[in-house]
Write a structure and sequence with these properties.
With 494 residues, the protein is mainly α. The chain is 45% helix and 7% strand. It contains 19 helices and eleven strands. β10 and β11 form a beta hairpin. α7 packs antiparallel against α8, α9 packs across α13 and α13 runs antiparallel to α15.
Length: 494
């Protein structure tokens, strides 16, 4: 699906962007410019980097698909729209010709090539042309974007990390900039392990080069640390994930008092990294989720609605009812019904600016890492861990409101969990997993959580040939047609 042309065309007038089919877009009419003249000033490199960020905000990447697809694939959301390519993704039958599949591959490598171009060009500038601080900033941003994209790709085109064999194939690693067709060399697929190692190395470069704070919409060392925490979490390296999540929690971010505020007040204190959008950008998430646009293609599933009901336990509900008290989970107000009534549990409302469609792309926020650390603490200590319960309560209680018989808001302390609520570490972990599902819906998490946990998804057991067929995307046909080194996935043959 292409809702709009590549935005980086406006920003990067002299960069060649690699497509997997081997075609190149010369984005400047002055085709006589040689590659060593393309980026010879810091400003041109800044423009190129802005273009790479905007490319990641495309609908095939962080602007839409990487946000909604994990929920559609895992059954947290339903697709009610007519786009056949997304219907096939939701039905777990995408083909090698599917535009969404091709978009992740091709647009992803376009971003990676733009990042490689920035890295190689910055490194070629002499000391008089750029300061060490600005050099590190540009290179760090580029490594961050490379890692972000490659992490998306390897989870869709390869088996889950560590699921079966160290020889499982992921995606090709590309670390060299391609300025022209003559620079392009076909590459075979690297293993999933090799791709994860490259992602970790790239994030290490980003962390070491980026400052602790940055302008809105740009990465910093904490944003790179957050992505690294996600990578380690997905690898089930819970010791590393616990430590990294702790660094994020100590990074100066704060939970908003109201969980809905994050989506209406962009770059709030809870935000770790989000991509700025304007009325000209239209990343796509609002267009394909809001009920006033296309009648709301993306819907809340009955399974997710049922999960919301489980947030307050039966014993807690009974205690409230005995005291003639009621409760409200404010996160239900991030949904509405077909008449626009808040809490309707039909249409998502995390992307609410349906007039301008200028909602930011929300990539990383604090609550995710509080719950990540909570879960890893339980796993690593194999206990009903006190810190884990505290972190869970912080996320949970800021969303829950309790009212007395007169409808006045009162303390919600009786909805706080304590150690006595859990008979085992496993019960506490399940409460945290449920909280992640509710807190992070339509934020690109749920399917990845289920694969990490090696759980059955929509009736398909993990580690089976059926799981390979349903959950590993086919290699795009255009890539196969132009690169004989690429091995196919089961979906290519099924």
């Amino acid at each position: 699906m292409k809702k709009r042309i590549y935005k980086y065309i406006m920003y990067v007038p002299m960069v060649f962007v690699l497509l997997s089919c081997g075609d190149f877009l010369d984005l400047d009419p002055q085709q006589s410019l040689s590659s060593d003249e393309v980026f010879d000033t810091q400003q041109e490199l800044e423009n190129a980097l802005i273009g790479a960020y905007n490319a990641y905000q495309d609908t095939d990447l962080g602007g839409l698909n990487m946000t909604i697809f994990p929920d559609l694939i895992a059954g947290n959301a339903d697709w009610a729209g007519s786009f056949p390519t997304i219907v096939d993704v939701t039905d777990l039958v995408p083909t090698a010709q599917n535009g969404e599949v091709r978009g992740l591959w091709e647009d992803g490598y376009s971003v990676i090539n733009a990042a490689n171009t920035v890295i190689s060009s910055v490194e070629a500038l002499d000391a008089e042309a750029i300061s060490d601080e600005d050099r590190n900033l540009l290179i760090g941003d580029a490594y961050f974007l490379k890692a972000l994209v490659q992490f998306d790709q390897v989870r869709y085109f390869g088996r889950p990390f560590g699921s079966t064999s160290s020889t499982d194939l992921g995606v090709p690693i590309r670390n060299e900039a391609v300025f022209s067709l003559s620079d392009y060399e076909p590459r075979a697929r690297n293993t999933v392990e090799q791709v994860y190692t490259q992602i970790i190395n790239d994030l290490g470069e980003a962390i070491n080069r980026l400052p602790a704070t940055s302008a809105d919409g740009r990465a910093n060392s904490l944003a790179a640390t957050a992505v690294l925490a996600r990578v380690r979490f997905q690898q089930r390296d819970y010791t590393a994930a616990e430590s990294l999540a702790g660094q994020i929690i100590d990074g100066g971010f704060t939970l908003n008092a109201d969980p809905t505020e994050f989506y209406s007040s962009e770059f709030s204190g809870e935000s770790i990294f989000e991509l700025a959008a304007t009325i000209q950008d239209n990343p796509g998430a609002t267009f394909f989720t809001h009920r006033n646009l296309r009648d709301g293609d993306t819907r809340i599933s009955s399974s997710l609605s049922d999960a919301f009901d489980d947030i307050v336990t039966p014993s807690q509900r009974a205690a409230l009812a005995a005291g003639n008290r009621t409760f409200l989970d404010l996160r239900t107000r991030l949904t509405e019904d077909s008449d626009g009534n808040l809490g309707g549990m039909e249409h998502p409302l995390k992307f609410e600016d349906f007039v301008a469609q200028a909602d930011n792309s929300y990539i990383i926020r604090l609550a995710e890492f509080m719950l990540m650390r909570a879960e890893t603490l339980v796993i690593n200590t194999n206990s009903v861990n006190a810190e884990a319960i505290d972190l869970l309560n912080q996320v949970r209680l800021r969303a829950l409101r309790v009212f007395d018989a007169n409808g006045d808001e009162i303390s919600n302390a009786e909805l706080a969990f304590s150690a006595s609520d859990f008979s085992s570490p496993a019960e506490l972990q399940e409460a945290i997993i449920l909280e992640r599902r509710i807190e992070l819906f339509l934020e690109g998490n749920y399917w990845h959580d289920l694969t990490r946990l090696q759980r059955t998804i929509r009736g398909v057991a993990p580690g089976t040939s059926e799981a390979d067929l349903r959950f590993i995307w086919p290699i795009p046909q255009r890539a196969l047609d132009t690169n004989s080194l690429l091995e196919v996935n089961p979906r290519n043959e099924g």
